[in-house]
From TrEMBL:
Amino-acid positions noted as binding Zn(2+) 2 in the UniProt annotation, renumbered to this chain: 98, 133, 373
Binding site for Zn(2+) 1: 87, 98, 198
Family to which the UniProt record says this protein belongs: Belongs to the peptidase M20 family.
Protein name, UniProt field: Zn-dependent hydrolase
Pfam families found in the cross-reference section: Peptidase_M20 (PF01546)
């Protein structure tokens, strides 16, 4: 049986090697943040790293029709597979741990299971879900949403990046066939349980290195279009202007005040000003609202109010209802890990999407500052190794079913 104390030390060398290999990939020289956006060169480097880890371990490697990468210890065709993993893409200038910690820990946990003879014969799958952050095309968890059918394949193909390139074209450019997108019933039917390990994105674990997720808050993304009239900044009188910028600025401040009084979260980001000149009044400002709340009714009311007050044209681009990890798998993990904290998160995860299709649970690794989606995102190495040991212990138990 995996002994967490010994296992953490045993995992150290392999974890450190993989971490050192992955760390420089897609790192921004100036900010030190990561830009590993879907179907870019950095994403391809991350994918090459994943394939290399799989093949070096003699795992069966494949990429599914939705662009997710899989590494299997045994043929999943028989069903009953236990899957773990996360994502390797990042937000713009993101941190090193959000996503990669779950994938590196998955390979390190497999190594531990093999070294201790606890791998068993049930198929263990390691997954890298593509485009979890939605940084390039705007919609989060594209790979897992497509796999579970939550995101329509035609809609996904038509998503465009800031340069106007569609997701389909970006996939083709990366050598993937976009016609194969869609719910993967066959693959889902083979998975008995999915466990995602992830750096905690808040400071809620306190003095516990590991935690178990109880829920994911409902959250969504809405695209706001503020329309105006392009004109000359030097010849158009103030009273004659139809400048969309003031309306956008008012919406940002209004959203903040409303979120504060509702005890919820609202963030405007991914702003595009057209034309984005210094001496031209813009014709349009497009901005994405990310809003989240523990209570779905509060979230719905908040976004409705922000929308109404903004006067903008608003489209809901993605929405994840509350994910409740409640149930036997969560309790089993909490029991195996001896009374670790069980806590909710406002952060979305691929596990939140998979939970609608297969038994799913999440492990969190302490983030001492709570800072995430930033170059400052960090987790201490002993906590990361405790995470690997905890994941290995959980996988050992699930594989023994
Ligand atoms: O946005 C999120 O919560 C996640 O990091 N994709
Ligand atoms: Mn993230
Ligand atoms: Mn993540
Ligand atoms: Mn995630």
């Amino acid at each position: 049986m995996i002994d967490p104390e010994r296992a953490a030390a045993q995992a150290e060398e392999g974890f450190a090697r993989m971490w050192a290999e992955l760390l420089p990939v897609g790192r921004h020289s100036r900010s030190g943040g990561y830009r590993r956006h879907a179907w870019t060169a950095a994403d391809a480097e991350c994918r090459a790293w994943f394939e290399e880890q799989a093949r070096a371990r003699g795992l069966a490697y494949e990429v599914d029709g939705n662009g997710n990468q899989w590494a299997w210890s045994a043929d999943p065709a028989a069903g009953g597979a236990i899957v773990t993993g996360s994502h390797l893409d990042s937000v713009p200038d993101g941190g090193a741990f959000d996503g990669p910690l779950g994938v590196v820990s998955a390979f390190a946990a497999l190594d531990l299971l093999r070294e201790t003879g606890a791998a068993g014969s049930r198929p263990l799958g390691i997954v890298n879900f593509g485009d979890e952050e939605g940084a390039r095309f705007g919609v989060a968890c594209v790979g897992s949403r497509l796999m579970t059918g939550v995101l329509d394949a035609d809609r996904a193909r038509a998503l465009t990046d800031d340069g106007g390139m569609s997701l389909a074209a970006a996939m083709e450019k990366a050598g993937r066939d976009p016609s194969a997108l869609g719910r993967d019933e066959e693959r889902l039917s083979k998975i008995a349980a999915f466990v995602e390990l992830h750096v905690e994105q808040g400071r809620n674990l306190g003095d516990a290195p590991i935690g178990v997720a109880s829920a994911i808050w409902p959250h969504g993304r809405w695209r706001f279009d503020f329309h105006g009239q392009a004109n000359h900044a030097g010849t158009t009188r103030m009273e004659d202007r139809r400048d969309p910028m003031p309306a956008f600025a008012a919406a940002v401040l209004d959203a903040r005040e409303r979120a504060l009084s509702a005890g919820a979260l609202a963030t405007f980001g991914k702003v595009a000003v057209e034309p984005n000149g210094t001496n031209a009044i813009p014709s349009r400002v497009t901005a994405w609202l990310d809003s989240r709340a523990a209570d779905p009714a509060v979230l719905e009311a908040l976004v409705a109010e922000i929308t109404r007050a903004s006067g903008a044209e608003v489209v809901r681009e993605s929405y994840t209802p509350v994910v409740d990890f409640d149930g036997p798998l969560r309790d089993r993990l909490a029991g195996l890990l001896g009374g670790v904290p069980v806590l909710p998160t406002g952060a979305g995860h691929d596990a939140g999407i998979l939970a609608s299709a297969v038994p799913t649970a999440m492990l969190f690794v302490r983030n001492p500052t709570g800072v995430s989606h930033s170059p400052e995102e960090h987790a201490e190495r002993p906590d990361c190794l405790a995470g690997v040991a905890a994941l290995a212990r959980v996988l050992e138990d699930l594989l023994a079913d």
